[in-house]
Amino acid sequence: MHRFFVPPKWLGEDEVTIAGPIARRMGKALRVGDRAILLDNSGWEHEVEISTVEEDKVVGLVVRKSLAAGEPRTKVSLYQGVLEGKRFKFVLQRGTELGVVEFVPLVCGRCVIADLSDISAARFRRWRRAIREGAERSGRGRLPNLQPAMLFPQACEQAVRSGLSIILCEGDVSLHSVLRKKKRVSPFSVNIFVGPEEGFTPEEVEQARRYGLIPVTFGPRILRPEMVGLVAATAILYELGDLE
């Protein structure tokens, strides 16, 4: 069943009227009598039977309201070094589908951009659209939060205020061993730091350690930069019981 995020104010009555770009998207996929899921980013989903399909307007009747089942218990935040081209968009879409609840674009020493001002408003709009598409496709009831881009020290300071914070790099401590130890206390939130194409500098890893982040490794295999955070998020959600 097709799923669409809509403004919450549109879902206040039993009869729902959808307008503008969302209506045009719905009109391409639906016909009168079809059903769709409308989401207001609150965790609830509204099943709607379509009664009218016009060029810029779709009308439907809410037939069922229920809690979305796609939200994880463990809150994974991904601090991802900004990547080239479409790689960052790929991370946002696939991370959303996996269950990441927050993304923080990270500007660090080896990034393709050197300054926060290099990230345009248009790029952020494309990133938000990628997140929405991933959430609609995967059964999420909430849109993951996309934070403003941060410099590395600022991001470290923010992350250590809550939950378990790890930084993926070359080292002797495995992600598996850290998760097994922390599983005893079942951390509610986990912050994952992943570098850009060339990874973090040794100075950044040491700085993260001073802030309280735990350097961890995947072992001998080398992953593509757009895969590192996704594999880590998958391992964390599995180990903590969110993929059962």
Q: How is the main sheet built? A: 7 strands, parallel
Distance between the termini: 23 Å
SSE sequence, one letter per element: EEHEEEEHEHEEHEHEHEH
Approximately how much beta-strand content do the residues carry? 25-35%
Structural class: alpha/beta
Residue runs with pLDDT of under 50 for 5 or more positions = none
CATH class of the largest domain: Alpha Beta
- List the total number of helices: 7
Describe the global form: elongated
The tally of structural domains comes to 2
The total beta strand count reads 12
Radius of gyration of CA atoms, rounded to a whole number = 20 Å
CATH architecture of the largest domain: 3-Layer(aba) Sandwich
CATH superfamily of the largest domain: SPOUT methyltransferase, trefoil knot domain
What's the CATH topology name of the largest domain? Answer: Alpha/beta knot
- If you average the pLDDT, what whole number results? 91
Helix proportion of residues, in percent? 25-40%
